[in-house]
Amino acid sequence: MQLHPHTSRRRTGRLAGLTAALAAVVGLSTLTGPGAHAAADNPYERGPAPTESSIEALRGPYAVSQTSVSRLAATGFGGGTIYYPTSTADGTFGAVAISPGFTALESSISWLGPRLASQGFVVFTIDTLTTVDQPGSRGDQLLAALDYLTQRSSVRGRIDSSRLGVMGHSMGGGGSLEAAKTRPSLKAAIPMTPWNLDKTWPELRTPTLIFGADADTIAPVATHAKPFYNTLPSSLDRTYIELNNATHFAPNTSNTTIAKYSISWLKRFIDKDTRYEQFLCPLPQRSLTIDEAQGNCPHTS
Ligand code: 9J3
Ligand code: ZN
């Protein structure tokens, strides 16, 4: 925020008193107005200013409620669980659907539900129609889940339907690439140790963060995550993070590296919240948990 130049200019007499009174009123309304943290210049900003520890924490600032969607109530996907901020005081939120991998259930990615929702998103962890559905089908199912979420779900009024994203593990991660290819209006995609027979993704227009795992022998990074990342348009906001000492199944248990960079990516591209750019650019350094990171910085969209 920039100080009004008049506040630093010297005045005398009654005009000075009036100026001071006006400044006090303006300052007070800035602190106490609707959504204490909603910046005037970004209507999508939600929650307090982030810190390294706030994005690493097991829970963010929002209390979370959940509701289950039965397989029978769902069309085009297998039902799931919706996690959402309990309070309606901060207006609507962006939303993200998350698909599990081959043979896996929603429970394999459920840790992400409250972890992401508590930062200020509506999160839908889904089951697929069958556990052996391929990435193309999983992409369609992620989109069907987003449509259910924004058009039919009990929390549809809490969602900004123009700000949506997709995530997924393995074939679900491959599915998140498929979903973004089908629906370029998606604001963020996060494939986690993704698997897909299609190795090239130049069609994507959605900012994409790909997690690979250095010890993945099921979807080895050399034939999955890396070529997926490398074939995204170089003009696209894209990042590749390779988890260190991690297997294909790293995204199936609570993982702070996945959480902190996913939160930052969703905030930066679903909410346009540039307060999170500091965690993405410059790219993370090699560490005990990160083998390698690639990406364009600063971001362009
Ligand atoms: O979803 C996945 O875990 C994909 C890896 C896999 O089992 O592929 C074998 C066809
Ligand atoms: Zn390593």
CATH topology: Rossmann fold
CATH architecture: 3-Layer(aba) Sandwich
- Basic shape: globular
Please report which band the strand proportion falls in: under 5%, 5-15%, 15-25%, 25-35%, 35-45% or over 45%.
15-25%
Name the hetero compounds present: 4-ethoxy-4-oxobutanoic acid, zinc ion
Poorly predicted tracts of residues:
1-36
> What is the mean pLDDT?
90
Number of strands: 9
Q: What do we call the CATH homologous superfamily?
A: Alpha/Beta hydrolase fold, catalytic domain
- The CATH class designation is Alpha Beta
* Rounded radius of gyration (Å): 21 Å
DSSP helix count? 8
Percent helix, as a range, is 25-40%
Major sheet: arrangement of strands: 1-2-4-3-5-6-7-8-9
Largest sheet: 9 strands, mixed
Question: How would the blueprint of this fold be written?
Answer:
Elements: H1 13-32, H2 52-56, E1 64-69, E2 80-85, E3 93-99, H3 112-117, E4 122-126, H4 135-151, E5 159-169, H5 171-182, E6 188-192, E7 208-213, H6 225-231, E8 238-243, H7 256-270, H8 277-280, E9 290-295
Parallel strand pairs: 3-4, 3-5, 5-6, 6-7, 7-8
Antiparallel strand pairs: 1-2, 2-4, 8-9
Bound molecules: 4-ethoxy-4-oxobutanoic acid and zinc ion.
Keywords: Hydrolase, Signal
Domain PET hydrolase/cutinase-like: 39-298
Family: Belongs to the AB hydrolase superfamily.
Structure explained in plain terms:
With 301 residues, the protein is of the alpha/beta class. It has one domain: Alpha/Beta hydrolase fold, catalytic domain (Rossmann fold), CATH 3.40.50. It is built from eight helices and nine strands. It has helices spanning 13-32, 52-56, 112-117, 135-151, 171-182, 225-231, 256-270, 277-280; strands at residues 64-69, 80-85, 93-99, 122-126, 159-169, 188-192, 208-213, 238-243, 290-295. Strands 1-2-4-3-5-6-7-8-9 form a nine-stranded mixed sheet, sandwiched between helices. Helix 4 crosses helix 5. The longest helix is centred in the first third of the chain and has 20 residues, at 13-32. Bound molecules: 4-ethoxy-4-oxobutanoic acid (9J3) and zinc ion. Zinc ion (ZN) is lined by residues 214, 244-245, 291.
